Each structure stands twice: as structure tokens, then as C-alpha cells.
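FORM 12-B: Structure-to-Sequence Request
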């Protein structure tokens, strides 16, 4: 029976590595929208989710989709509404509930950001060959599947939790 170590090597521990990698990638991308547009990470997550969906959705949907605490999303929504980048609309099925959508100004900002973020993603991923990038995406998908994470907007739309 192999001897178990009483110390955890963080630099070999996958959850630590993934968290550190996610934090660094997020910080690298945030430079694209923070300095030029004054958006913080939660505000960007709101805009990104609304832009990705291209449809109004609830703050709860955004919190679930981005795995961000709902109070953080709420503060981001308030800031984006103050800047007139996001607006609330009544849910016609349930008048007590509001849905969120980007304003024209929010959509324009989003459209300006997309090419910049895609370029930054390419820079980050350029250390991998095209095949390695495909393999990496496939492996991430396998881990997401094992954790029962929604991976497409179609899946998200069909899930009650979203």
C-alpha cells in the first residue's frame, strides 16, 4: 500500500491549479475592459451573459451561469443600470419578477469589447498548438460534464436552475 503524504503539494493539486489559472486568465482579460471601459469583473460577467444570450434574463440566471454570488451580481447590475448599460424589464409571465437586458449603449460597448477579448484569448492560448487547444477544450468539457455543469446556452435555457 502506497504511503500517503501528510502534506498536500498545492502545485500538483488540480483544484488549486485550476483556481489559480482561472484567476490569472480573468485578471488578464479584465485589463481589456477595466482600464478602457471602467468595468469590473462582475459587471463584465453580467454584460457577457446578456450578450451571449442575446435575450433578457434574470439576475439569478446570471449568478448561476457565472458561478458568482447573487449579491455580487446585484451590485454589478445596479452599477450597470446607473451607467445606462443595462435595464430592467417586467417579466410578462410574473409581474413581480424583472428581467435584465442590455441597453443600446450596453450593446455598443459589448460589441466593441468582443474583438479585444477574443484577441486576448488567442494570445493566452497561443502557447498551445491548434491540436492542443482542441484537446484542452475537450478535456475541460469532460471535467464540466463530470461536475454536471451546463456547457451551452441551449442546455442553460432548458434547465430550471437557470
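FORM 12-B RESPONSE
SEQUENCE OUT:
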Amino acid at each position: 500500500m502506497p504511503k500517503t503524504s501528510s502534506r498536500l503539494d498545492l502545485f500538483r493539486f488540480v483544484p488549486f491549479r485550476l483556481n489559480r489559472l482561472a484567476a490569472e486568465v480573468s485578471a488578464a482579460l479584465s485589463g481589456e475592459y477595466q482600464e478602457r471601459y471602467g468595468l469590473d469583473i462582475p459587471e463584465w460577467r453580467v454584460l457577457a451573459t446578456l450578450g451571449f444570450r442575446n435575450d433578457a434574463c434574470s439576475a439569478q440566471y446570471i449568478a448561476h451561469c457565472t458561478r458568482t454570488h447573487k449579491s455580487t451580481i446585484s451590485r454589478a447590475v445596479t452599477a450597470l443600470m446607473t451607467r445606462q448599460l443595462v435595464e430592467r424589464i417586467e417579466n410578462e409571465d410574473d409581474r413581480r419578477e424583472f428581467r435584465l437586458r442590455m441597453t443600446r449603449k450596453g450593446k455598443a460597448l459589448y460589441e466593441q469589447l468582443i474583438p479585444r477579448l477574443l484577441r486576448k484569448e488567442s494570445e493566452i492560448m497561443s502557447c498551445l498548438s491548434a491540436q492542443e487547444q482542441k484537446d484542452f477544450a475537450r478535456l475541460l468539457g469532460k471535467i464540466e460534464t463530470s461536475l454536471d455543469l451546463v456547457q451551452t446556452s441551449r442546455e442553460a435555457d432548458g434547465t430550471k436552475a437557470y
